[in-house]
Amino acid sequence: MFVLKATMSLLYQVLILLTFIYQVDSHASGTNVDGACSDLIPQHGFGSQNSPPPYSISFSPTSFTPGQNVTVALTSTSTGFKGFMIQARRADTNQNQDPMGSFYIGSNSQLACFGKAMVHSSSDVKSSLTLIWTAPAASIGNVNFRVTFVQSERIFWSNIVSNVLVEASSASTTAASTTGSTTAVSTSSASTALSSTAFSTTSTTASLTTVTRVYANATTPKNSCTMLNVEPYLIALVSGLLFTVSSI
């Protein structure tokens, strides 16, 4: 009975040791990391570093359109990293924060989190790594790349956020909106100018009408009076001449 208990205890300890070895080996090779998909925190049993990370995240180009490829570079500024996990998420944290787009499998990397993240494939020390991210075919807005860098089981920096990668369609919409506002203001100004021109034209027409009326008042009555004063004498003269001729 004693031997059986001792054997069971030994088997239990061996099982725990094998489980630990499997987990360490899995994390070193980048497998069995799905537990970190939601928050990018390695399941190592230790907390993330609070100091600034000795790593940088850059990408090219600085804007994208749906379906476009973007090159992402992970670079060490001092000590290299053994492991990593990278995801792309919407920059607006008020929107859905599920990982977006997909990654091409390259050297020292493999897919994780159902194809929505990229992780290391070996524990070799890396000073830099270049990845290719493909934006979804549909518009998602601006995004950030979120990366966890692992130096060792105990030392890692989790969920480091890159600068904003701008979706070109979002930038165009903003520019178009601004241009539209400017055009509206210009149109309003043009309408005001046209109204002023119309007012000036009306004023000019009114002025011309007044001048015409003044001219008419200054000339027409004088001519009319002359015709009225001369006409009776001409009629009388012609009548006299006709009477004289008929008498002869």
UniProtKB/TrEMBL annotation:
Gene3D superfamilies: Reeler domain (2.60.40.4060). Keywords: Antibiotic, Antimicrobial, Immunity, Innate immunity, Secreted, Signal. InterPro entries: Ferric-chelate_Red/DefProt, Reeler_dom, Reeler_sf. GO terms for biological process: defense response to bacterium; innate immune response. The keyword Transmembrane helix does not apply. Residues 18-181 form the Reelin domain. Transmembrane segments: none annotated. The keyword Acyltransferase does not apply. Pfam families: Reeler (PF02014). Belongs to the insect defense protein family. It is found in: Secreted. Residues 1-26 form the signal peptide. This is Ferric-chelate reductase 1 isoform X2. CDD domains: Reeler (cd08544). GO terms for cellular component: extracellular region; membrane. The gene is LOC106059952.
